[in-house]
Write a structure and sequence with these properties.
Blueprint: H1 9-32, H2 34-42, H3 46-78, H4 82-97, H5 109-132, H6 134-137, H7 143-170, H8 185-208, H9 219-235, H10 241-272, H11 276-304, H12 306-326, H13 330-341, H14 344-358, H15 364-376, H16 381-393, H17 396-401, H18 403-413
Length: about 425
């Protein structure tokens, strides 16, 4: 019989607070506020702005896809994750703060896109090191719950920061701190809010969490060994068929989830005429239900297993997403979207847990690098499919319906995944 020792709550709380910290970047910068400001207030026109932002994020995605496995392999050689995570987190805070200087003029478009891309790249690379810390802070029998709890706390962080940005800055009348509305300073200040938020709430992780001792390896040697190991791992993935099958499945269904979340606001505005404030309020509501779902999904993960949690959640997403696409009015859409977002968290959190459970221990960070790669290498396919179908049919409702195919294919591929550790 396996004994279960006492669980240290401090590292678990600190781990969850990092999710609370970095989720502000996703919601405020990437999804609801700053991306909208760029398209509507900085670019020459909204259509041009949307295209420029998409291309910048696509370029960032290519960089992430190329370097994330390399970073993971290097970290596996050195045995250290925390130093990398600390440096990348600081870089993300600085790059995010630089967005404050983006004025509402097309002359600042290139500057905005450059810093948005840089902040996105370092954010995503930092996330792979953060994910790989999960087995360090959580015992095996609690990994599902800790992953789910931290993902739920992350949604809460995004929700609260988004609410502060909306009511404390964007809609505040008069604006605080003498901010000039004519220069879009209340909206620009959301970048500073996000940077400060990230910096403050990520600190407990670096104060509380301690990695097990690891032998010191020179950076140059680690780089060489890491890259060689990466190529060997890619070559030998045939020996990790279970991990490979999961990575392919996750690549496809994660693309669908990402597309729904990213284009949901655009869909709501175009189909039901929601204004910017309405889209932000939708984002707040979705973060609430997604956070609740993530926390509940953590319990399901440990009780029934990561694979079952993912499969059940994907089935639920197919059903609820169909309801969203069939909604005849704004109220029905709002309710259906909240039901659908309940299953975002369980899918994402259980995927992280399953990766931690099935990855070979000595190659865990490297495998998380491939996990990050699988989430980025086809990230353009979902939005591209939506765009192509929309243009071909003239219906955004039919365009967004294409993501159902991604969900169903990912669900089908999950059938052959085994929930057991690789050798």
């Amino acid at each position: 019989m396996t004994t279960r020792g006492p669980v240290s709550r401090g590292p678990i709380v600190a781990y969850a607070l990092y999710d609370f910290a970095n989720s502000a970047f996703v919601t405020v910068i990437g999804t609801f506020v700053f991306s909208t400001y760029f398209a509507q207030g900085v670019a020459a026109d909204p259509v041009t702005g949307a295209g420029q932002w998409s291309l910048a994020m696509a370029a960032a995605g290519i960089v992430i896809a190329v370097i994330s496995p390399v970073f993971g392999a290097i970290a596996d050689q050195t045995g250290r994750r925390m130093p990398w995570l600390a440096v990348l987190s600081v870089m993300c805070v600085i790059a995010t703060a630089m967005l404050w200087y983006v004025r509402p003029t097309p002359a600042d478009a290139s500057f905005a896109l450059m810093w948005a891309a840089i902040s996105t790249i370092v954010f995503e690379i930092a996330t792979l090191f953060y994910n790989a810390l999960l087995p360090t802070v959580a015992p095996p029998h609690l990994m599902g719950r800790v992953s789910g709890w931290s993902w739920g706390v992350g949604y809460a962080g995004g929700l609260v920061c988004l609410a502060v940005a909306l009511f404390g800055l964007v809609q505040a009348n008069p604006p605080p701190f003498g901010l000039d509305k004519a220069a879009a300073e209340p909206v620009r200040a959301t970048a500073l809010l996000t940077a400060i938020w990230f910096a403050v709430f990520c600190l407990p992780l670096f104060v509380v969490v301690r990695e097990p001792p690891a032998p010191r390896v020179a950076l140059g040697a680690a780089v060489g060994k890491g890259i060689r190991q990466l190529f060997m791992t890619l070559r030998d993935m045939r020996g990790h068929k279970n991990v490979l099958r999961f990575l392919i499945a996750a690549m496809i269904y994660s693309d669908a989830v990402h597309t729904i979340f990213t284009l949901g606001g655009v869909y709501a505005a175009a189909t039901y005429g929601m204004d910017v404030a309405g889209v932000i309020k939708l984002g707040i509501a979705l973060n609430v239900t997604a956070g609740i779902g993530a926390a509940a999904g953590g319990w399901l993960d440990d009780r029934f297993g990561s694979k079952r949690t993912i499969v059940w959640s994907l089935v639920a997403l197919v059903i609820t997403a169909s309801g969203v696409l069939a909604a005849p009015d704004e109220r029905t859409f709002f309710i259906a979207a909240m039901c659908m977002s309940t299953f975002f968290g369980p899918v994402q959190a259980a995927s992280r847990t399953l990766m931690a459970r099935i990855a070979p221990e000595k190659e865990r960070t490297e495998m998380f690098g491939l996990f990050a790669l699988s989430g980025k290498v086809t990230a353009f396919l979902g939005p591209a499919a939506v765009g192509w179908v929309t243009l071909a049919t003239g219906s955004q409702r039919l365009g967004l319906s294409s993501v159902l195919i991604f969900l169903i294919v990912g669900l089908w591929l999950m059938r052959g995944v085994r929930e057991e550790a690789s050798a």
